[in-house]
Structure formats: structure tokens, C-alpha cells
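tool=predict chain=A
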Amino acid sequence: MADSTSPTLSRSADPAATTTAETPTGQDGGAPPEARAGKAALKDLLRPVRGYLMVGMLLSALSAVCALAPYAGLLHLGRILLDAHAAGQGPHAGRVQDAVALILGGLAARLVLYFLALSVTHVGDMRLAAQLRTRIVEVMARAPLSWFTESSSGRVRKAVQNDAHDLHYLVAHQYVECTAAIVMPLAALLYALLIDWRLGLLAVATLPVYAAIQAWSMRGMGDLTRKVDAMLADVSARIVELVSGIAVVKAFGRAGRAHQRYTRAAQDMAEYYRAWCAPMLRSNALATSVIAPAVILLVNLSGGAAMVRAGWVDPLQVLATCLIALVLPSAIDTLGWSSWNNRIAGAAALRIMDVLSTEPLPEPARARSPRDGEIRFEDVSFDYGAIRALDGVSLTLRPGTVTALVGASGSGKSTLATLLARFNDPTQGRVTLGGVDLRDVPARELYRHVAFVLQDAQLLTLPLVDNIRLARPGASLEQVRAAARAAQIDEVIMALPQGYDTVLGRGADLSGGQAQRVAIARAILADAPVLILDEATAFADPESEAAIQDALSELVRGRTVLVIAHRPAALVNADQVALLERGRLVAVGTHDELMADPAYAALWRAAAPGAPPGPPPDAVRRSASGPGSSRQARPAGPSSTREGRP
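tool=predict ok
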């Protein structure tokens, strides 16, 4: 009788979205709004480390200027040597030492300043990553459960790990590298122009040719990228169709056709991509050859030789500007990769901002404390988007009683329990605990009153003592052991190599039933008056079931218990059973009373094969009995209604 009311929303990766954001073409991929949104998201996320980035960029700019000192030193040293040779005497030692000191000092200053720049931005990057991960986890802690239902685990993991890491290169390296890539060529060009304006222009002569070839190769890139995105989406859809439906296509002998559709889409994509890339690669190869060192030297040496013959410059000036010309294209690769990384970081920033913008469950302005453990669902409805999961449910759980929720899969059992835990707030109506609306109870106060034991016991990568202490962090070891003894797990833990200090998965492990008893010990230690129990023995191993039942008997004593029922025993032993159908509460009573209902009897027989059948449909009755009962008579027949609902 597992519940699956919460809709599972499949979120497969969207190739059209990711490729546009990440294709290193230097274009926006035909999606300027996304690029602008990514830029705005980055601006917001990087605001806390703006100071680190500014200091890093300043140090990088100074480093780039210092990188010109060796060129100036070499030019100065060359003049000293040529002048000495022309005078027929040895070079002046002091002037030579000054030139060498300028060369070595410039190199040292550049390395030190660049190292400091990267150090500063790396510190900023580490602080930003830690801050973002902390903010994301805080948002997740305050987010309603529906956010996790609607978000794939991959999306959440990507935001916490991958997306935060995708900002690393941008923060730690890119601002420093791009500053150097811009400042150094500009400073070098300025220095070349100071040597001789004609040689300075000659040093950049190949760059306009490179830019023209690249611009020509990028014509129509937006349309081409959009078509590639569409084809990638088609390939992705064929992969999903092939993998997710493999059992069906195999069963009906259609595996070959599904594989052919995928193969055809992949081949079409490959052929188009080849036709697209071939001319672009040829253009890129031509553009790159224009700024190759050999071409730059050829242009500058031949042009410089002509200027020397004309008497405009001397050979030493030509040599200096040739060295400077080799530096100028170095910025192109750095800036090109930075453009690509900007798109990747922008897409990551958008995903992070999407998580950070999640609306938390509101905290009350005036905190109130429940007076006891009575729970009331008052005309409660809840929607998952456009899907109504609960519809007008009214139910009372009195202190010290056990209420079992029963119904077919999708009837709303788990959803009702999540509202009591305030993982979500009702769309309509209210849930009260001890006479107080849950929306008026602070989260910390609520979880002092409500404890959970779920089917799948979640134990963290912590010592077992700390796993149990999650319910009460200040509990002593003796209190922890007392709870473990009540949960029938103390002897098992003490038999482990490190006892209560054992971290599961590191040389020791527990069975599913033993882990369940640790979760029960945690709930016992919490000593909360209200317990939500997603029947803990549903998947227990036979050896553990009896021990778990004994532990649960200790746990539920004197508490208000809500059981999501999966096994017949939970129904028989409950003080009241609430039958849900399609989000509506259709009957409340004891197990014996509800056996008169054919729907309940069918659920009972399905859960307990061989159980005696209930009475025939024409004898069905709903007589009100006991507090909070909602049963009333209804006529038999297919057109009958329950509780006056259609």
C-alpha cells in the first residue's frame, strides 16, 4: 500500500539549453536573453568577492607592465654593446649591470606580482565556493518538500558541487589572466609606438587580417548553432526512448526499430556537424596561420629591413619591435577561452540563482507552542502544481492513540503525513498541533514535538552515537545508550569494533533492520509527543522484525502516532483506521468496522492473502462510532457516492 501521490517530474537534460550556453564559438548561440541573464546572475553571485577580484586585477596589470622591463633592458643593453663596439672599446660595466638588473628585476617583479594576484583571487574563490554551498544548503534546509519532489537529485547535486566548481576558473584565474592578456599587449604596443610609430603599426599588421578571416568564418553562426541544438535534442530524445522503454520495445520485438531511429538521428547529426565544422576549421586554420610566429617575424623583419634601408630606423629598434610583435597575439587565445568560460559560468550562475531563489516555508512572526499532542486536519487540501493530492480532509488524532492511514497507491497517505511534518503547507485548510496552526509553530519547536521513523532508515556518515544524538544534540552517552537499549540495538552496537564511535561503511556496517532500530533509538531519544511512522517493519529482515516490533511498542506508548500502513498488523492494532481514496478521506473507524467496506476489504485481502472476505456490497454500511468518525451510510451500486462527494 505504498503511497505515490507526489508526482515524479522527469527533468532530463535539455541539449538545446546547454549547448547554446557552452559551445565555444564566441557567439551567443542565438540566445541573447540567456546570455544577459547569465551575466546578471554572475554579477550578483560575485558581489561578495568583488574586492578580491579588483585587487587581483590590479596586481595582474602591474605584473603585465613589469613584463615589458626585460624588453626595455634588452634594448638598452644592445645599445650599450653597439656603442662600445662603434667606439672600439669595451662596454661600461656599470651600464651593463644596470641593464641586466632591469631585465632580472622586471622578470622577478612580474612573477611575484602575478603570484600575489593569483593568491588573492584563489582566496576569494575558496570563500565564494564555501559561501555558495552554505547558502544552498541553508535554502535546502528551509525549502518545502515539494521543491525536492520537483527537483531531480542530479539538479540539486549539480548546484551544490558542479555549478559552484564551475565558477572556480572564472574567479581564481580568468580575471587575472584576462587583465594580463589585455594590459600586456596594449603596453607592448604603446612601447613599440614609442620606439617608432611605423614599427609599432607594423607589429600589429597581421591582426586586422586575422580578425577579418574570423568574422567571415562566423557568418550565420547563430542559425547553424540553433540547428545543431535541435539535432542534439533529437538524438537525446532517441536515447531516452531507447533506454527508458527498452523493456517494452524488447517485449514487442521493436528493439531494432528503436535502435534504427537513434542511429539515424545520430548519423544525421554527425553528417551535419561534419559539414558545419569543415569550412570553419579551414577558416580557423588560415586565421591562426596569419598570427603564427613565423609569419609575424617575416612581416616585421622584411618591413623593418625596408625601413632600415630607408634610414628611418636602426636594426636594434627593428629587433626590439619584432620581439614585442610576438607578444601581441598571446591575448587572442586567452580572451577566446574566457568568452567560452563566461558562458559556462553564466549558465552555472543561473542554476545556482534558481536554487537560491527558492521560497522557504514562512516562519511565524509570533511563535506559539502546542499545548498537547492532539492533531487536527481541518478541511485540508493540497496541490502538487495542477494535481490535487488531498481534497477536503478532516481528521482528528487524539493524544495517546494510534491512527493508521490506508489507501491505494496515490491516495494521499504520504502527502498527509508530510503536512503534519510541515514539509509543505496546505493549499487550503489547516493542520493544528495542540490547538496551534503549524504555520504558527517555529520549525525548531515543531520538531521538538514531532519525531519520524521512516521505512528507509537514513543514517549519516557520523559515529553511531552522533546519529542517535541528532534527535537531542546535548544528550549524554548514557541517555543515548538507554534509548538504544529500548530500541533493542545496544548490544549490536557494543559488539562493533569501535562501539558507539563506529562510522558505518568504515570497516563495519548494519543490516537494514539494525539500521531501522538505530532510527527508532533516535526517535525514542527525541521523546516527542507525536510520532510519524512509515511502517518500519515493511522491509525488515525476518530476524529484525520481532526486535523492531518490541522497540516500536516502547516507542509508541503514550504518544500520538500516525502510521502509514503497509502491513495488515498495523491496521488491526490501530485505535482508528483512516481510509483515503484519491486524496479524499472516505471512512474512519476500527479495522473490524471498516471490513464492511468493499474497498477497504479489497485492500485488506490484497495485503493479507487468505484473510476472510468482507460482507457483500449490498450489506455495506457506514455507522458513526467513536470520536472523529466520518462514516455514514451509502447505497450500494456503481453510482454511489461517499461522504456526499461525487
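The chain has a mean pLDDT of 77. Strands lie at 375-384, 387-397, 402-407, 428-433, 436-437, 450-453, 530-534, 560-564, 576-581, 584-589.
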